[in-house]
TrEMBL record:
Domain of life: Bacteria
SUPFAM superfamilies: NAD(P)-binding Rossmann-fold domains
Pfam family, any one: adh_short_C2
Name of the protein in its database record: SDR family oxidoreductase
Family according to the record: Belongs to the short-chain dehydrogenases/reductases (SDR) family.
Length: 258
């Protein structure tokens, strides 16, 4: 049997499906965009840094859409641009996110709280609203949000109250959208990563003390990588995860299992 006819391979195939991946200019989003393209999807990559997006889009035969997702008015142009450039989106991966303050909860500035919620929670909802009519027209769709284990457990020593609230909010949003949109065969899930090295967490891994803390709290005896998250996203995006909806799947090397 040739690989393309193997039923297991077929489950993960995304031939010709149009996917949008936000936060694709680095880290997890970039790895997810490459993996979806590798599975056959036509991928639109979204973030602010045009040069990086253009390079990635060239490499995977996709479409670069530069946008500041914290600005709801600009965000409104993303899905129409993808629909025009590639066709109706069937997959949306909301990976863009950031942490705007490391102050303790009692001192988090209101501006940082608002920016965190705007990018990490409001933008995924607005993008989900924007892809909804396309997914309805296609008769199916898969939305995968990227949250964090801090949406589920407190992380001692690394203050992140508004970030945690935004990520927990994604899980609530996921369950509600899953129930409301199931009748359109639109599935909505969330992947909650533990710690892995990226631009956001680089300073943590570069500090021997902080890296030791991460190692001590992670049962699996190695550092996580973006590729560890990609498998879960691929599963949820395509037919292999076809009966999974409303779930938050934790990928954390066992951090929250202790
Ligand atoms: N690394 C971890 O340990 C970890 C753990 C738990 C959860 N996460 C989550 O995983 C996701 C990916 O993070 P990462 O670790 O891969 O970090 P990263 O490398 O810093 O990636 C963040 C991405 O978000 C984009 N982004 C940030 N602000 C944006 C804005 N205003 N508009 C549009 N795009 C914006 C960035 O691109 P531009 O700067 O080009 O806009 C970048 O592509 C995030 O949601 C993060 O919260 C990460």
């Amino acid at each position: 049997m040739t690989p393309e006819h193997d039923p297991t391979t077929r489950m993960f195939a995304l031939d010709g499906r149009v996917a949008i991946v936000t936060g694709a200019s680095s880290g997890l989003g970039a790895a997810v965009a490459r993996a979806l393209a590798g599975a056959g999807a036509r991928v639109a990559v979204v973030a602010r840094r045009r040069d990086r997006l253009a390079q990635l889009a060239d490499g995977i035969g996709g479409l670069a859409v530069a946008c500041d997702l914290a600005d709801p008015e600009r965000l409104g142009a993303v899905v129409p641009a993808v629909a025009e450039g590639l066709g109706r989106p069937e997959i949306l991966v909301n990976a863009a996110g950031n942490m705007f303050t490391t102050e303790r909860a009692e001192a988090e500035p209101l501006d940082a709280v608002r920016r965190t919620l705007e990018l990490n929670l409001v933008a995924p909802l607005l993008l989900a609203q924007a892809v909804f009519p396309h997914m309805c027209a296609l008769g199916r769709g898969s939305i995968v949000n990227v949250s964090s284990i801090s949406g589920r457990v407190g992380i001692p020593g690394i203050p992140q109250a508004s970030y945690a609230a935004s990520k927990a909010g994604l899980s609530g949003l996921t369950a509600e959208l899953a129930v409301q949109w199931a009748r359109h065969s639109i599935r909505v899930n969330t992947v909650a990563p533990g710690f892995f090295r990226s631009e956001i967490t680089g300073p943590l891994y570069d500090s021997e003390r902080a890296a030791g803390y991460l190692r001590r709290h992670t049962p699996l005896p190695r550092e996580g990588s973006a590729d560890d998250i990609v498998g879960a996203v691929l599963w949820l995006a395509g037919d292999a995860g076809g009966y999974v909806t409303g779930q938050t799947v934790v990928v954390d090397g066992g951090w929250t299992a202790r």
